[in-house]
Amino acid sequence: MVSAKEDRNGRRPQKGKANRIRGLLGVGYWVQGFRCFPWMAVNFFLKDSVKVDSSTLQILQNSVNLPMVGKPLYGVVSDAVYISGQHRLPYIAIGAFLQAVSWLTIVLLSQSNISILTMSVYLLLNNLGASIAEVANDAIVAEMGKSKISQSASSGELQSFVWMASSVGGVLGNLLGGIAIDRFSAQSMFFFFGLLLVLQFFLTISVAEHSLNLPKSPSNVGINKQFSELLAALRKPEIAYSIAWFGASYAIIPVLTGTMFFYQTQYLKIDASVLGISKVFGQAVTLLWGVIYNRHLKSVRPRKLIVAIQVTMAVFMISDVLFVKGIYRQMGVPDSVYVVVFSGVLEVLFFFKILPFSILIAQLCPPGCEGSLMAFVMSAVALAFMVSGYLGVALASYVGVTGNDFSGFPLGLLIQAVCTLLPLFWSSWIPDEFKSKTRTE
To answer: pLDDT digits over 31-52, tens only?
Structure first.
């Protein structure tokens, strides 16, 4: 006789496990998106309390992302090294723990002991923890994309779900951050997020990984073998060329985020709450992008979609040139409105390509090295962003932009837009279509 809770095919238990996985990933990606809450405070804290200039701020913003470059190593370790018979959830817990230690330690430091060096050290530790947790979360998503438990994930639904979870966290984080930045100290915001990470830590260690029925990989493959499998995957032309193009499409752009932040806050005197609303708007657009992609764009060829996003980025950058020149102001558009709408959208446009590209890579990835390959992709993106940020500092210096002189800023933005279009000339490196490969269990 068949139980009321289970049919002959065991479908309900599988659905329950899929829901538990979605819940765990939802929390993980939501917290990942909510990281913008303390990081908004970091930017203002460095500018107003530590008194850094725009170039130093941008260098620090990019340098503390160095742990992100180590993601392939974390991915290989996660794939090959099991902790108490588990190889995903322990790494999520470790990542949450390191982040909590970082933020709570900054809270305990006295004002006189806080310097650029100490902040850099603890922010590096923070990003190390975030990188480890992200690698484990991304690996679960990639694995489930080929699992029979989650057939819908192969068409991108699970990727869209975690994308939207991260976006919801980003919307709430920026909204609360914009409100809190004028009412509470930066340390109070760090403390709140640290407590949230402590909660995530205890929630994660309370779940047994075997209860999720994740696809199994041999637990004794060893790190050397895992590295060999990663290298074998990277030798596949469709994977190697795709990752090379994707990384270059970011690295070649000399971003001027630090300069734009100082221009808006120092020159235009834009209120912090307006910047918070701008980020909320951007995250809301990101959430909408996830919904639209899941419903209407999954069938669009990846190359066509990614190229369209790249062109849109360049258009928004040219719009920034008109903004800095005061054209929109002359047309009656207030600076605050432009910052909320256009600046908010441009900031998140950089990440729009990640959703279709991650789905493409998940389908191209050979079974057994999902964590390693997805980590390598995100590492390449992190390194590309660092290079992009350093090029932005060099460009700002070249056009003569300082904390008080923004006369060369329009030229810098125009150069940035032109560089954004350059990767289109070798967009053929991205596969125009792919076939889904179901993981055998």
So the answer is: 998 998 998 888 778 877 777 7
Question: CA-to-CA distance for 359 and 353, rounded, in angstroms?
Answer: 10
- The answer, yes or no, to whether residue 416 has pLDDT greater than 90, is yes
User: pTM for the full model?
Assistant: 0.73
Count the Cβ atoms, other than its own, within 10 Å of residue 295.
9
